[in-house]
Amino acid sequence: MRLVIIGTGNVATVLSHAAQQAGHDIVQVYGRDAAKAASLAASRNALPVHNIAEISSDADLYLIAVSDGAVAAVAAELNLGNKLVVHTAGSVSKDVLKVCSTNYGVLYPLQSLRAEMPGVPDIPLLIDANTGDDLALLQQIAGSISSQVQIAGDEQRLQLHVAAVIVSNFTNHLYALAEQYCQQSGLDFRMLQPLISEVADRIKHGSPKDLQTGPAIRNDHTTISRHLQLLRDFPQLNYLYEELSNSIWLMYNK
Description:
N-(1-d-carboxylethyl)-l-norvaline Dehydrogenase, domain 2, 2 domains, 8 strands, 15% strand, elongated
């Protein structure tokens, strides 16, 4: 199929690579930054476009891969008649695309993507469309680049997006706070990396609830108090430590 990629960031880079490897033809790459559009287009054997009015009207699929907050604004600038237009945002309704086409949907990768990924990962793709024919076409395209394709409406996709933020963004923020604590305490954060890997690997094989360890689940007030005393000069981490300890205790003592 012939695809136009609208966007030049991480998602646009990875999904266009995946589509190209699956045998689809990337005909254009649009980006407001002409240099970035030219660079991504060159790697996809496509034509670069930095004027939205120059986007071709003869592609089979138009993939809007921009930040969630920019989807509506980009859609408002497009006029693609009955062409299938999809966005890749987890928190945005498919209906924002009504303004640019009568056929529209979503292709949301449930993964944190990086342009520098050495290969194309087999990741969950959540799809939705406003007609059965469009959904069938999206299933065909998504199935060509991933073995994990699931239909998810706006509400379910938003719910999964919330869960994704918790397990990815919030977890990484805790890593960042722990790294700051280590640095300011003269400790090597890299010593914790095997532990991080072990916990991440463990939850692939069981429920996180069944795998919880630590002083909070043991109701070890002595250890918790000593930890909070150590964190007295780290107010944000002190607060989170106490709140998360309470949350863990409540989960197992209802």
